[in-house]
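Checklist before submission:
- one chain only
- standard amino acids only
- sequence pasted in full

Submission:
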Amino acid sequence: MAGAPYWGASATAASSTFMGIFKLIVRRVLLGVVTLLVVSFAVFALTNLLGDPVHRMLGRGALPEVVKAKRAELGLDRPFFTRYFEWLKGLMTGDPGNSFSNGSPVMDIVGDRIKNSLFLMFVASMVSIPLSLFIGARAALRRDKTFDRVTSNQMLIFAAMPEFVVGAFLTVLLATNVWHVFPATSRIRPGQPPWSDWKGVILPAITLTLAVTPHVSRTMRAAMIEVLESDYVEMARLKGLPERAVLWRHAFPNAVGPTLQVIALNIAYLAGGVVVVESLFNYRGIGIALRDAIPVANAPIVQFIAMFIATIYVVCNLLADLGAILVTPRLRTRLQ
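Returned file contents:
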């Protein structure tokens, strides 16, 4: 009976934490929905400024009645807000419309490309996240020593280099002039999975990895140094805990929490970074589709890809908030 109050208090604390996390999820989801609605309106409005797709398809010398008929066929003769709400309804029901260029459904054009881009992002994330956490944590433990100085300088150099510069350098080094280890361009054919040409995935994945790793590793280093100098880590050491237990049980989880926000932003950044990298390596993903759609003012393709990237940003930030709470004891305590 003496243990009943303790277990009751523990159950109450756990219930309070669960409700706090649930309320946080609801707030973040609602905020994400509002954000996507605002972005959808901005994207739809801005894509209407790309130019008149009818003049792009028919040419400036087309007869007025032909232009009028084509605009009616594409639905461009209707009011702006009518077209926006119809497009938004189709987007939420999985039907983002048809391409202006050939009339094919947007999903038929970009469906395989989305899978290819997600696979490339997945490969880059699976390499860059553990690598950056390891480099950042080890640099903090070896603060101001050789490993810390060398990796800090290297990460600073890579952080300052744009993706196309890194990709061009890797192409020269590993695909053309110096060593011919990997192909300079991807050869994924329509309908084939991205791993069917695994060699063609390596250079784009390395390029994205080098673009993401510096920011996460530097954030992890700063967070780890702050945690190692905190009072509760010093108290754990005074209690006689082994240094390994102090580092991995107390320091590392609390340092990962703030870093998750940066990881989420960088994973979301990959969704935009693939546009440049895919174009550089001719990787058949959303980057190539976007590159081909903008010059011809193919608004449905541009709109869908823009909303796809925005959705990744919102989802990644939501997962980062939840992950930070789950791995950081101090944040869980605040929700009770």
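Reviewer check: The chain has a mean pLDDT of 82.
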